[in-house]
Amino acid sequence: MIPTITAFESSPDRGKGQARDMRVRWAFEEVGQPYEVRLVSFREMKEAAYRALQPFGQIPTYQEGDLALFESGAIVLHIAQHHAGLLPDDPHGRARAIMWMFAALNTVEPPIVEHEQAPYVERGQPWYGRERLSFLEDRIRVRLAELSRRLGDDGWLDGAFSAGDLMMVMVLRRLNGSGMLEEYPNLAAYVARGEARPAFQRAFAAQLAVFLAASGDR
Amino acid sequence: MIPTITAFESSPDRGKGQARDMRVRWAFEEVGQPYEVRLVSFREMKEAAYRALQPFGQIPTYQEGDLALFESGAIVLHIAQHHAGLLPDDPHGRARAIMWMFAALNTVEPPIVEHEQAPYVERGQPWYGRERLSFLEDRIRVRLAELSRRLGDDGWLDGAFSAGDLMMVMVLRRLNGSGMLEEYPNLAAYVARGEARPAFQRAFAAQLAVFLAASGDR
Q1: Are the beta carbons of A105 and B105 closer than 8 angstroms?
Q2: Residue A189 needs a FRET pair 20 to 30 A away by CA distance; which of A77, A165, B87, B145 works?
Q3: Cα–Cα distance between A205 and A91 in angstroms, integer?
């Protein structure tokens, strides 16, 4: 049975592959699993029918037969556990790859999302401005410096490419265009290494096609 | 082999069980796995030796033989996967329990941590004040309302108690004392239900004993 995921009908990132369905698309491509996509509008995502599937009104969701999941981390882990290619066979290596997924989502991503959303959700608030943004950037730099030190000259976080790298690359590339990644050349190269993978490229093209179709820009 | 975790030598929460070692202690207690604790000072956590174990300089870590893990989510999941008691046997139920762990850590926790840290990290910043705190509280309420609606009258998030509930209860109880949980009586009851579990009580007593010993208050 081919799983179906949900994605934005019209992604606010204009096809840059920053919406969280990209993580799941990339995972599917790495393991060679075909998938279908159901596009949802912002209005639909907040309605009761969608919230029965995703209580927080977010994308992506994953449906396969009578299994329904949400949270991109959980979906990528589910795919990784049921197909070869995203987790090492060695149990300790497997545990460490999963650890890096959690580190990406719970330690590295929150300050990046906070910085990314500030111009939208905080604009107009009395505190919003350059000082606030610098504060948020410095908080990101703490994590980038720590991660950069750990990665060193390695290609991936723990030997071979894994779901941990997939998630970390996706989290770090939210900083594309900010100039911050370039302050840590090994992290910039790490993200480029992830983006160069054929599976990433296929996933990226698939989500971009959705944006171009929605915008009529073909 | 008995695993060893790290915890704060002197927890900033003064023994309220809010530090992330509590999640791991509770998981150990639920599955009946004895464990040892190595206490670390704030200074030690930022030194190179500790960062070799935990690149972000945080607690807890987990060591068992030659396996070393960090990130409370990854450690709890590792424990849950290797012992009975925290994940259902049914594969779909297992995937959903893991999904709730990710939802707790990646969707519900970030706005709570942001609000909790603001009085420490933002104090003295030009934007910090009542308005900023109200903004952060409202952001938390969005997630609480969504979770409250999903939980409804159920005892746990997906049938029997699981690692997903453990993590969600731990994340929600960061709000203890704020008055916000009480605005959603089913969530307040859910947290109380978690805290009433004998395994929670044993874990809580163990971390409190560390605080009392450190403070000389015995």
Answers
A1: yes
A2: A77
A3: 33
Mean pLDDT of chain A: 95
How many CB contacts within 8 angstroms connect chain A with chain B? 115
CATH of domain A91-197: 1.20.1050.10
Q: Structural domain boundaries of chain A?
A: 4-85+199-215, 91-197
| Alpha-carbon distances, residue B143 vs A56, A71, A148, B139, B147 (angstroms) | 7, 14, 33, 7, 6
pLDDT digits (tens, 9 = 90+) for B33-47: 999 999 999 999 999
Rounded to whole angstroms, the Cα distance separating B163 from B171 reads 12
Q: Token pair for residue A218?
A: 């073909």
* Cα angle B99-B104-B107, degrees, rounded to a multiple of 5: 95
Token look-up 């840059």 returns A16
Where do we find the tokens 């925290």?
A: B86
Spatial separation of the C-alpha atoms in residues A166 and A181, rounded to whole Å = 17
Residue A218 has pLDDT above 60, yes or no: no
Q: Judge if ipTM > 0.90.
A: yes
Chain A residues at the B interface, defined by Cβ less than 8 Å, are: 51, 55-58, 66-67, 69-71, 73-74, 77-78, 92, 95-96, 98-99, 101-103, 105-107, 109-110, 113-114, 122, 125-129, 131-132, 135, 143, 146-147, 149-150
Looking at the DSSP assignment, which residues form a beta bridge with residue A62? Answer: A5, A69
Query: Span B4-85+199-215: which CATH code?
Result: 3.40.30.10
Q: Which long-range contacts (CB under 8 A, 24 or more apart) does A202-209 make?
A: A202/A29, A203/A17, A203/A22, A203/A25, A203/A26, A203/A28, A203/A29, A204/A17, A204/A22, A206/A25, A206/A37, A207/A7, A207/A11, A207/A15, A207/A17, A207/A19, A207/A21, A207/A22, A207/A25, A208/A15, A208/A17
Amino acid at B46: K
Residues of A in contact with B105 (CB under 8 A): 102, 105-106
